[in-house]
Write a structure and sequence with these properties.
The chain has 332 residues and is an alpha/beta fold. The protein has 3 domains: 201 residues, 3-Layer(aba) Sandwich (Rossmann fold), CATH 3.40.50; 58 residues, no CATH class; 54 residues. It is built from 12 helices and 5 strands. Strands 2-3-1-4-5 form a 5-stranded parallel sheet, sandwiched between helices. α2 links the parallel β2 and β3. α4 packs across α8 and α5 runs parallel beside α9. The longest helix is centred in the last third of the chain and has 33 residues. The termini are far apart.
Length: 332
């Protein structure tokens, strides 16, 4: 086994918000010659954030659609966490799950987007592959994760906040490659070739995982319906008025969607006085849902801690029984 501190290792960090295609992108890069990704870790999506104890995980900072608002999520080379002991401990914990006979180590965690400078300082021979996806698709997709429910307004703010921090930090990064989910879907082979050249390897001859454009289309169709047919369309038009110019700086539009020839709204349709009121109501609803979901989860964990072992074993036995067994025992 090679020494995990050997200078010939390269470290490739895949960055991008949840639901931006980071997982499939990292797995595909892991198929390149000389590359290795985490495998069989038992962690969610085999993400490196769950295999270390140096910095808090995204979930510990609020979860999907929220963690980027926490100042602890943004780490730079000035962080007090950047000590020789912490760097060595994290290297050791990650190399435990990499194939150390391969020289290019790939790690994917959404929060990497806010830690590029920190990771570069800890791993000097590092490369960053940063992917962006349309904020409508990201925000609507994240709403499916009920435990960290966020309103669309919060989702848009989180997208802008995280990529805004990254844009500032990017000036300090030596090696970075950027791509868009929408482009990756339509021409993945081009981006695989460019990324392979960027990190110093070749594109493999094996089949790669493919992304389907239908996923974006689903969210764009939903957004169109919200803007035009929803009883709360004034809320969504209010979001267009508030955020359109901000997303345009990144080349995205809330009214001219990829693959669409027509603008969804005219300027006169964009908002009304009700929009701001609906926006506040949506935020309150999302926060209430988060509190309810997390309270339920916390209550269950508390109950499990307090129950005697004998009672917990009886509950497990009961849950493991088939419906027929439960019925028979109830009628005995």
């Amino acid at each position: 086994m090679k020494n995990s501190d050997a200078p010939n290792y390269k470290y490739v960090f895949v960055c991008g918000l949840q639901r931006s295609g980071t997982s499939i992108l990292a797995r595909n890069i892991g198929r390149f010659p000389h590359c290795t990704v985490f495998k069989n870790t038992g962690a969610i999506e085999d993400e490196g954030q769950y295999l270390q104890d140096v910095y808090p995980t995204n979930n510990e900072l609020g979860g999907t659609g929220w963690y980027g608002f926490d100042p602890q999520a943004h780490l730079t080379e000035q962080s007090p966490l950047l000590t020789a002991e912490n760097v060595g401990r994290r290297r050791a914990s990650w190399h435990r799950y990499w194939d150390n006979d391969r020289s290019i180590c790939v790690e994917k965690t959404p929060g990497n987007l806010l830690m590029t400078r920190f990771l570069q300082a800890a791993f000097p021979n590092s490369y960053f592959v940063v992917i962006q996806r349309h904020p409508v698709a990201v925000s609507l997709a994240n709403q499916r994760w009920k435990k960290s429910m966020a309103s669309l307004r919060t989702g848009f703010e989180h997208w802008l906040n995280c990529y805004g921090i990254y844009e500032e930090d990017k000036r300090h990064i030596r090696r970075v490659y950027e791509l868009r989910y929408e482009d990756y879907v339509t021409n993945s082979s081009r981006y695989h070739a460019e990324i392979a050249q960027f990190i110093g390897t070749e594109v493999p001859q094996t089949d790669m995982e493919e992304l389907a454009g239908v996923h974006n289309r689903k969210y764009f169709d939903r957004w169109r319906q919200l803007l035009t047919d929803s009883p709360f369309r004034q809320y969504y038009r209010h979001l267009v008025q508030k955020y359109e110019s901000q997303f345009m700086r990144y080349g995205y539009s809330l009214t001219n969607l990829p693959g669409e020839d027509e603008q969804l709204l005219t300027e006169e349709q964009e908002s009304s006085m009700l929009g701001n009121m609906y926006s506040r109501a949506a935020d309150i609803h999302a926060i209430g849902w988060r509190l309810l979901t997390r309270t339920k989860g916390g209550s269950r964990r508390l109950i499990r801690r307090l129950l005697p072992t004998s009672v917990k074993e009886r509950v497990k036995l009961h849950l493991a029984q088939s419906p027929e067994e439960k019925t028979r025992r109830g009628t005995d």
